[in-house]
Amino acid sequence: MKSQQAANRPDNTAFTQQRLPAWQPMLSAHFVIPGFLLIGMAFIGIGVALYITSQNIQVLEKDYTGTGQYTACSECADMQTIPCICNVTFSLTTLFTGPVFLYYGLSNYYQNYRKYQVSRDDVQLWGDVTKSPGDACAPYQYIDNKPIAPCGSIANSMFNDTFSLYQIINGTMKLVPLDGKGIAWWTDYNIKFRNPSAQGSLQDAFNGTMKPVNWSKPAYELNPSDMNDNGFLNQDFLVWMRTAALPDFQKLYRRITSGDYALGLPPGDYVLQIEYNYAVKDFGRKKVVFSNVTWMGGKNEFLGVAYIVVGSLCLVMSVVMLVVYAKYKFADENA
Amino acid sequence: DNVIRSYKYSALTFLPLSLFEQFQRIANIYFLCIVVLQFQSIPAISTLPWYTTMIPLLTVLSVRGFKDLADDLARRHSDSQINRQPCDLLTNESFTSVQWKDVCVGDVLRLHKDQTADLLLLTTTEPHSLCYIETSDIDETNLKIRQALAVTHQELSSDPIEPSLLAFDCEEPNSHLHSFKGVLEWRDMRHLLDTGHILLRGTVLRNTRVAYGLTIYTLDSKILQNCGQTAVKTTQVERTLNKVVVGIVLLVLLFALLLAVGAGIFEARVAPGIEALAELGGRYTPVYKVFLTFWGYIILLSPSMPMSLYIRFELVHVIHSLFIGWDLDLYDGGVDVPAHARSTTLNEELGQVRYLLSDKTGTLTENRLIFRQCCVAGVLYPLDLSWNPFSCGGLQFSDKRLVDTLRKPGSPDVREFFKALALCHTVMAEWKDQAASPDEETLVGAARELGWVFLSRTRDSMTLSELGHRRQYQLLALLDFTSQRRRMSVLRDPEGELKLYCKGADIVILERLRKDSTYCESTEKALEQVFSQGCLRTLCVAVRSVQEGLWEEWSRALELAAMTTGASDDLYDNMERELTLLGVTAIEDQLQVGVPETIATLRQAGIKVWVLTGDKKTAVNVGFACRLLDPGTRLLQGEELVEFEEQPELGKRFIALSRQCQAVLCCRTTPSQKAGVVQLIRKYTSSITMAIGDGANDVNMIKAHIGVGLNGLEGGQAVQNADFSLAKFHFLRKLLLVHGRWSYRRISVFLRYFLYKTSSFAFVHVWFAFCNGFSGQPMYETWFITLYTVLYTSFPVQCLAVFEQQDVSAEGSLRWPSLYQLGVGRQLFNPRLLAGTFLYSIYTSLVLFFLPLSVFCFSAIDFQTFSITVATASVFTSTTETGYWTMFNVAAIVFSMSMYFLATLILHSPLLHTIAPADFYFLAFQNAFASPLVWLTVLLTTCTAVLPSLAARALLLVLNPPDT
Predict the structure, then answer these.
(1) Farthest-apart Cα atoms in chain B, separation
(2) CA-CA-CA-CA torsion sign (A180, A185, A190, A195)
(3) In this complex, is the C-beta atom of B836 within 8 Å of any C-beta atom belonging to chain A?
(4) Could you give phi then psi for residue A298, rounded to 5 degrees?
(5) Number of helices and strands (H, E) in chain B?
(6) Residue A60 has pLDDT above 90, yes or no
(7) Which of A15, B302, B404, B665 ranks highest by number of CB atoms within 10 Å?
């Protein structure tokens, strides 16, 4: 209770008197210098671990654009014969530890170009092919007034080279089984994309729609070998629709996980048979990449190096501060 | 009618008016344009959907709208309180109580104590229709006499009123408080009216039971005319900020232009080669595409404009103001008055004051006066009253000689001296609560103690008890005291003899003495030597015998002058000459507690303290007593100030000279000159000045820039007009050195941090443009952009602005006043530092973009994961820039980060996607945050982004360790 005379007396609390207890991490040199030292060491530690992990990742890249310095698939580069099959051969001297992932890579391909990236209809891809495709899909909205499904430029430009891998054993080509299951994101497969539902087959569901201009087959026939891998839920389609961050990118194509190759690709000669459909020579290049992965994903030397550099900077800082501090103290004591 | 309407809005007009006002701010207009741009359907322009700008804009508009509404409701409330005040109005020969708002011009009112309007006084219940009004709300002297015209007095006290016979003519409403001209016609007689016949609104009726008056002005009353629009004071920091905002807009335009050029090159050279892109451009020409891209980038970069900054800036100001009011160190328990920040826009300027201009009386001193010494007939009598600073009753004589002299018959000079003290004043005998003027009360009190007791006063007579003998004097004229004249006189008729007693400032009186005046030399010597050593305020008392003929001639001339010009000062001058000096009084005004220490501290802090006073040389003594003066002090007088106003060149040179001085003392300044000095300083130095005072005569000065009012004895005018009010002068030390310094520091850091966080976040788009063909692709999810400033990063920066005090504690600020120079030198918010902040935000945006880019380059990482990585690093970078971790800061950071993750989780939830697949198409939360690579990249990016600032701060700390 305030007395009558002191009715206007302010409250005496830590908050009103601005005396809140506070922790100042930068309280003294005794804290700051070891702090920087510790952060630096931790970063260098992480960096070294990342670098070593990355060094252990095996990567095999094969450019098959067919132009310039790489001659593989040069017979197909002019896109005259359709379909054009070409081979890329390589040999392994050591075991390529599994599971081996097979990626295709495109460069200078602006999947993050704004008008390209919005050129899709998420409602349609969620299974509603009866509605008219969104304006963003233009100019891949309609053909003959029939909606294109899937509409838009992303779908239309879907990567359509196909790969099959053979190991050459005693002159015969042994097919390496490529696993295309589960290469897309779980959320894409289960939530974001849905096939249109209809009585009967998937084909009936797509009734009344047109296939994208550049596609040779309609959406419901994307994977003839697996009936469940068709329509909007086709794994390759899902991977393609998850647009890349940067102009140079890779996308997962297959994994090698089964049979004799579950532990990896044994040493030997291999032939990668490519059905060359996708034209890139006007703007960039394409390649296939074999890689095994660790907990941190694919090979990534930059991250480890960057950690080491930043950690070293912290160490340098702490040394500089130590010197300054010593000088300051020294001068102080002399004074 | 008399209805006061200071509120602005009605239910109907609130929305349009409020919006109209808000859209006068350039930032709001800018964002409105952005929203309009976003609403059209060309995808190249609407790079971000409408809600990214609309939601923050609506938030800002509605918060501001609510604030205006609350203010307006408060105004309505106070209006209706004024309007509903009761008053007695004459209707059909009786008085009925009506509300104030129903009063009209020409109404006859019956006034009791307190409130008056602008009235012509008709009659009062006091003898001769006198009445007393307290004018402390209007000017410096508190109590004034007003008197009704003799004719109305006589007629109305005897006969019933016939108001219809009254005809009344007066000048148009104006703002001159001290002049009035009018004519009253009554039964074919014309009576001139002047300011002595009217009561003004804002004055208070005292010592008068009932007064009757005729309403002259209602809504255009003089006092309302006087409170003109107070200029809105904006701070130097805010002006800089406005320039920065304009700079950001220009920069956004420049970036957008350059990126549009880039887009043109891309569209012409690269895009046609990529089949998937070539088709998309379609029907537009490249130039048109460039044009669209330009606008697209304007929208995309618009988040770099700190839209909510102004409103948060205001909030910070309000909190800082509350801290001032909450401070126990600024609370005076004796009078139960806490400090109060009346203006909530000037806090940071408290930390930047270079010139402190102080009033003397009541500000540096207590304004409790003690009669210390007197010099009568050339003999000096010290009165030692120091044992009791509140002595008003019993005087303790230390000098027996004075009493002896008084009791001894035949010492006319001494007796005349005290008689003069008892007669020449405007004190009301009945009125004991407050002194009209503290000086007079002290002098009359001293005379009373020594035997000359002032008993009573009527309009034209005064009664004294002179050493036990009761005598009545006839009062013929009263030549009033004004701040220009600085003297007053009384004419009276004791036993047929006419005498003029005059009391006033020493040089005014001394130059009016008779040539052969005795004791002149010894008195002047006493003045020079003795009185001036203590901080004594001196008044000279003189007398003149007036010939009957001269009096009649003079009074006729005065009457004539009153009827024509109203200028009577020359006439007064004619009468107040040929004086004979009686003696000198010396009153001590004690310094307030802690004044010398405070001034010394402030000077150590680099603040130049100027004292502006209406007083004369005694000010110098106060100056020495306050440790203000050393031999380097320049003394200025009012006359010299007039010259500065006339000759700008002189003023410039004076300011240049005063820069060399540590302290300046301006004596004999009028209120307007005080304000003039403030303006002079501001004109030639562009420094921040603060004026502190306690009386109505300081109001001009207080209004001129930052003003501090002291809750002193001299009425509430200073406090009413001040930006900050304090109870004691020495509180200024903590107000400036602690609150001011903190406010400046916090606000500077807050603003720079805010600019850093918005621009570093937005400029990522510029770098990303180089990787997406200048296509206007946003780096972030649109929801992230919408919520970034509002939800994810606003609380830590807000907490920083409230709690930051990491450099030096309150005690440290007071112990090392020189730290204050940081604010005076604008070292925390200046173009150089802002440029640094800006470069740092560019650096951060580069790190935010290019580190993740380098990690993810050539990898299978998709755009959404990349976007989330950059966004997370951006939130982390923008929230952790804190050095002073109170629990609120920690809570704010934890809250912000949890809000970020929670909101992202919700916005990426399957449920929302089910509801609106097109708006919630980012479903990357699960995958992105499950990836160690993303976390490692976020950690690396955040650390690299904050490393320079962290290292700089650490290095500073090692170089200047905080004293413990």
Answers:
(1) 125
(2) negative
(3) no
(4) -80, -175
(5) 37, 31
(6) yes
(7) B302
Residue B416: which residues within 8 A CB-CB, separation 6 or more?
B543, B582
Environment class of residue B251 by beta-carbon count within 10 Å: exposed (0-12), middle (13-18) or buried (19+)? middle
CA torsion B739-B742-B745-B750 (nearest 10°) is: -100
Return residues 287-326 of B near A (CB < 8 Å). 296, 323, 325-326
Rg (CA), chain B: 36
DSSP-based three-state secondary structure for B756: helix
Spatial distance between the Cα atoms of B389 and B58, rounded to a whole number of angstroms: 61
The confidence score (pLDDT) of residue B538 equals: 75
CA distance B271 to B915: 36
Q: Residue B790 carries which DSSP code?
A: I
Any CB–CB contact under 8 A between A189 and chain B?
no
Tell me the per-residue pLDDT of B542-555, one tens digit each, with 9 for 90 and over: 888 777 788 788 77
Which is nearest to B808 in space by CA: B891, B753, B747, B884? B884
- Beta-bridged to residue B371, according to DSSP, are B587
B668 annotated ligand-binding residue: yes
Mean pLDDT of A130-158: 89
Residue A142 host element (H or E): strand A142-143
Q: Is B188 marked within a binding site?
A: no
Residue pair B146/B136 in contact (Cβ under 8 Å)? The answer is no
The answer to whether A20 contacts B325, with C-beta atoms less than 8 Å apart, is no
The confidence score (pLDDT) of residue B392 equals 40
What residues 215-254 of chain A have any CB closer than 8 A to a CB of chain B? 242-252
Residue B399 among the catalytic residues: no
| List of residues 6+ apart from B100 with CB closer than 8 A | B2, B82, B83, B84, B85, B86, B87
Determine which of B318-322, B413-417, B868-872 has the lowest per-residue pLDDT on average. B413-417
Amino acid residing at B847? V
- Supply the pLDDT for residue B480: 65
Tokens linked to B565 = 């010009």
Calculate how close chain A gets to B870, using CA atoms only, in Å: 11
Q: State the Cα torsion B35-B36-B41-B45 to the nearest 10°.
A: -70
B440 annotated binding-site participant: yes
Helix (H, G, I), strand (E, B) or coil at B469: strand
Among candidate residues A88, A195, A11, A266, the one with its CA nearest the CA of residue B323: A11
Tokens 């109209």 map to which residue? B20
Q: How far apart are CA B687 and CA B161, in angstroms?
A: 61
pLDDT band at B494 (very low <50, low <70, confident <90, very high): low
Token code pair at residue A138 = 């233009």
Which residues between 385 and 424 in chain B have a beta carbon less than 8 angstroms from any beta carbon of chain A?
Answer: none
Residue B889 CB contacts under 8 Å (≥ 6 apart), including other chains: A22, B796, B799, B800, B803, B882
Catalytic pick among B107, B118, B139, B359: B359
| Both tokens assigned to B925 | 């939360």
Q: Are B601 and B817 in contact (CB under 8 A)?
A: yes
Identity (one letter) of the amino acid at B718? A
Contact list in A for residue B731 (CB cut-off 8 A) is none
Share of chain B above pLDDT 70, in %: 78
Q: What does the H/E/C string look like for B503-545?
A: EECHHHHHCCECCCCCCHHHHHHHHHHHHHHCCEEEEEEEEEE
Encoded tokens for B7: 């509120």
Q: Which amino acid appears at position B358 of this protein? A: S
Query: Are B936 and A296 a contacting pair, CB within 8 Å?
Result: yes
pLDDT tens digits along A76-122: 888 787 788 999 999 999 999 878 999 999 999 889 998 898 889 99
With a CB cutoff of 8 Å and minimum separation 6, the contacts of A2 are A9
A262 φ, ψ (degrees, to nearest 5): -65, -35
Ordered by where they begin, the domains of chain B are 104-217 (no CATH), 328-364+591-736 (3.40.50.1000), 365-590 (3.40.1110.10)
Cβ distance B101 to B4 under 8 Å? yes
